[in-house]
Amino acid sequence: MERPVQVTASEQAKPALLVRGLRKSFGARVAVDSVGFTIAAGEIYGLLGPNGAGKTTSISMIAGILARDAGEITVDGIDIDAGLAARALIGIVPQAITLYLDLTARENLDFWGRMYDLSGAPLHDAIKGALEAVGLTPRADDIVGTYSGGMQRRLNLACGILHRPKVLILDEPTVGVDPQSRSAIFDLVERLRDTGTAILYTTHYMEEAERLCARIGIIDSGRLIAEGTRDELIASLGHDARVEIGLGRGDSVERAERIVGALKGVRSANVENGHLHVVADHGARRLPAMLTALLDAGAVAESVRVVEPNLEDVFLRMTGRALRD
Ligand SMILES: Nc1ncnc2c1ncn2[C@@H]1O[C@H](COP(=O)(O)OP(=O)(O)OP(=O)(O)O)[C@@H](O)[C@H]1O
Ligand SMILES: [Mg+2]
Following DSSP, what letter does each residue of 200-225 receive, concatenated? Predict the structure, then answer.
């Protein structure tokens, strides 16, 4: 009988990627301030934050593209400063397309493969595998300048996975792609996860973080302000819930705002496009009181919607601002 492989507690706990105390300033501006997190093999970790939060700066340091002011970065326990072999454990798919537009896809991949010290049959196999993974085999020998934006994004991704890194970093990989390419990218990311790759996924699309990421770090102004599973982050909101009340045309919006805003348990009430947006403790339970107060004031609710809290609400609560500008 085969004996099960013994995994010690320390092995189990050893993350594929460990980042600790990461810091970077540009002149007087602190772009990344004490950022730290770990990612396990086979886990997708999302770094979610608005424009300028410090996502690209953080991952550029992790990928060794940008020098850091401070911080520790290890992959499988190996310091990334240990040399080229350590660096090669990481793959990065940058936010900007980094392809030679006057070369074919195959030639681009050949170039990147050589950068990672691949050659001969292993390089040939790696190129074949990467092209298949992103669904570009039939277009492999076309000039990349003739590709659509989504196809270029997919090739950008292929360049990052060519050398089968243990840790793959994706910087907003779906910006500007159509739903079909987006879904192809999601499938590929999930397949890579399932084969044990640790994935760091940055985005400012809440829906992508919710769909793909086992754990999410929310970054704002260079700091990691919250971390957890989607459910943990939402639970941190307590019992707050959002209610949207559609108002009739003749209703005074300022008055509705004032009346509902003054009710017990209501944290905020703002009118936007004829809808009263209310955040209230146990939102749905306070609905009768809201509707009665409005009716007493002569305003008629034309529609009512209780909105499930999401990561946007977590961000809003922690920063007072919306995730997207
Ligand atoms: N090379 C640089 N020189 C000066 N400031 C920089 C440089 N790179 C980034 N910054 C600044 O650092 C901050 C973080 O930028 P970063 O690109 O990391 O944000 P981001 O979270 O990736 O945003 P986005 O979602 O727009 O890509 C911003 O204030 C930015 O202006
Ligand atoms: Mg960025």
Answer: EEEES-HHHHHHH-SEEEEEETTEEE
Indicate the top mutation candidate among 22, 32, 55, 169 to test ligand 1's pocket, ranked by most ligand atoms within 8 A of CB: 55
The CATH number assigned to the domain with range 12-234 reads 3.40.50.300
Mutate to test the pocket of ligand 1, among 56, 58, 95, 224 (most ligand atoms within 8 A of CB): 56
**Assigned fold of 238-308:** Alpha-Beta Plaits (3.30.70)
SS3 at position 292: helix
pTM of the model: 0.85
pLDDT in tens, 230-281: 999 999 888 888 899 998 876 677 888 899 999 999 988 988 888 898 989 8
pLDDT band, very low/low/confident/very high, at 6 (cuts 50, 70, 90): low
Ligand nearest to the CA of 31: 1
Domain ranges of the chain: 12-234, 238-308
Q: Are 37 and 217 in contact (CB under 8 A)?
A: yes
